[in-house]
Specification:
Shape: elongated
Number of domains: 2
Radius of gyration: 32 Å
CATH class of the largest domain: Alpha Beta
Strand order of the largest sheet: 10-12-13-15-14
Bound molecules: adenosine-5'-triphosphate, magnesium ion
Number of helices: 11
């Protein structure tokens, strides 16, 4: 009853399609015919889950159309992307054959169509095949699995090196600040030293305390007080920021203060490169509160600032603007903009990728913005966007929830 010409045609074309799959190609026409007849057509919408890691199922899938992606949660609950497959590739064979739980979650990336082949049907085809055909089937399957594991390994390695680099980056941020703070603290200490010397000289010669002398001494004392305050503030800021680099602790912060403290700590490096930073704070006092991480935000800003020094104004001299405003009721918006070299259209899509750099010769590793992206989206639960025009500058917009909820 089913053997109407239409059904036959459909099966013939299915058979032709099945031949295009590396693992099925070795089968004889008769076996393919049986697979074509016994398989079930299935379609999925973008983001539709085909199967989940851990599920046990007795079928494999061949992709007729569209793309799918694999994701795997490792034992640390870290998601590992193990790549995508497209038309004429197949998946799910190994766990189907071994009757094991699925190793990954598979999701459709685009509209997709599949043929689903049940375990029994495949075994039957294998049973009817010659030893040579069976060997070819398994060797194609082996190639496919190896490709998958290679992709997973690469992904794991690049994640590891990113997290190792984040440690290095913390150290780098700290070193940069230590140098800066030491330099900055020197200035008030120098002033104090001079004021003390003047006072010592004045007081070494016993003489009548005239109004003039009293005024001179009072002035020196005032100078000392102001500079002790300045040195104290610098050391306090440094302590806060450096401790926050080492221990990630969520705090109730005033985001405007945090931003200006960090910029203050980078002052030496900025002056050296001739970059001036303007902070435009549009937040009302009651809008400044941020339950967040000082250390993560400081790493984000330090990366923006060092990139502006290195790439926006490689010849030195220029301005960067940090704008703080409310995005909406629950979110803050921090914009970092420079008016320097800008980023070409082509590079714009890559700058958040690990190891993408145009400055290898300048000592760039290409991890700065990858780390920024990671910190903003994972640790700070926010979003980051880039707008840039070559020759006109770059603008990074960071949206942060005012309260980070883990
Ligand atoms: N403000 C900017 N102006 C122009 N180009 C920029 C700017 N910021 C980043 N870039 C471009 O983005 C690339 C990637 O930046 P990223 O911070 O990730 O790496 P890097 O600075 O080269 O190296 P690293 O930060 O690891 O030292 C840079 O090589 C540069 O081409
Ligand atoms: Mg950088």
């Amino acid at each position: 009853m089913l053997d109407t010409p239409m059904v036959k045609n459909k099966q013939t074309s299915r058979l032709e399609v099945l031949r295009k799959f590396a693992s099925l190609a070795p089968f004889s026409a008769e076996c393919l015919q049986a697979l074509a007849k016994g398989s079930v057509h299935f379609s999925a919408k973008p983001n539709q889950v085909i199967f989940r890691q851990g599920e046990v199922s007795e079928s494999m899938y061949v992709i007729l159309k569209g793309r799918i992606k694999f994701e795997r949660d490792d034992h640390k609950n870290e998601t590992i992307n193990s790549g995508e497959l497209a038309q004429y590739e197949s998946f799910g064979e190994v766990s189907m054959l071994k009757r094991e739980p699925r190793q990954s979650t598979v999701t459709a990336v685009t509209d997709a169509e599949f043929l689903v082949i049940e375990r029994a049907l495949l075994l039957e085809a294998l049973g009817k095949s010659t030893p040579e055909e069976v060997a070819d089937f398994f060797s194609a399957l082996n190639d496919q699995t190896r490709k998958m594991y290679d992709a997973q390994l690469l992904e794991v390695l690049s994640k590891r090196s990113l997290s190792a680099q984040m440690e290095v980056e913390k150290q780098r941020a700290l070193t940069q600040m230590v140098a800066g703070v030491a330099h900055e603290v020197n200035t008030p200490l120098g002033v104090i030293n001079t004021a003390v010397a003047i006072m010592a000289r004045e007081l070494a010669v016993p003489a009548e305390m005239t109004a003039q002398r009293a005024a001179d001494i009072a002035e020196s004392l005032e100078l000392i007080r102001r500079n002790v305050d300045r040195a104290h503030a610098l050391v306090q800021d440094f302590k806060k920021v450096s401790v926050s680099q080492l221990v990630a602790e969520k705090e109730k912060l005033n985001i405007s203060d945090v931003v200006s403290e960090i910029v203050g700590l980078m002052a030496v490096s900025l002056i050296k490169h001739g970059v001036s930073v303007k902070i435009v704070d549009k937040l009302k006092p009651e809008e400044k509160s941020w339950i967040g991480y000082r250390g993560f935000l400081s790493q984000v800003l330090i990366n923006f600032l060092t990139n502006a020094e290195r790439y926006a104004y490689p010849k030195g001299g220029g301005q960067a603007t940090i704008t703080l405003e409310l995005e909406d009721q629950d979110r803050l918006r921090l914009t970092f903009a420079d008016h320097g070299a800008g980023i070409s259209k082509e590079n714009q899509s890559h700058i958040f990728e690990p190891f993408f750099t145009t400055g290898r010769a300048l000592g760039g590793t290409g991890l700065g913005l990858a780390i920024v992206h990671n910190l903003v989206t994972n640790s700070l639960k926010g979003e980051i966007k880039l707008k840039s025009q070559e020759g006109k500058g770059a603008e990074f917009t960071v949206i942060l929830p005012r309260v980070i909820v883990e």
